[in-house]
Amino acid sequence: MAKLREMNTLRNQIFAGFTLTMIVVLTFAGVFIYGQVSALLRNSAEKHIQQTAVQANGRLDALLDQVDTLTTQIATNDYVQKLMLREESGIRSGFNERQSLLQIASSYMAYLSGIQSLELYTKDYRRLFPLDEINLESRVDREWIDAADAAKGRLVWAGLDPRQPGTVLAIRRISLIDRSYSAGGYLTVHLNRDYFVMNGTLSGETPRSGEYMLLADGRGQPITSDLSADDARSVLEQSGRDVLLRGEELIAVRQHSETSGWTLVLLTPVHATTEGISVLRTAIFVSIGIGAVLFLLLTLLLSTMMTRPILKLMKTMRGARLGGLKPNPSPAPAIASLEIRELNNTYNQMVTDMNELIRVVYEKELTQSRTELKALQAQINPHFLFNTLEAFYWSLEDKGEEELAGIVVAMSGLFRYVIGGASGDEWVTVRDELEHAERYLQIMQMRLGDRLNWSIDADPALADVPIPKLLVQPLVENAILHGVENKLGPGTVTIEVARSERPGFAVVTVRDDGPGMDEEKVASLLRGAEGRPSASARGAGVAMSNVQRRLKLYFPQAEGGAERDGGGGLRIESEPGKGTAVSFEIAIPNEEGNRS
Question: What is the model's pTM?
Answer without folding.
Answer: 0.45
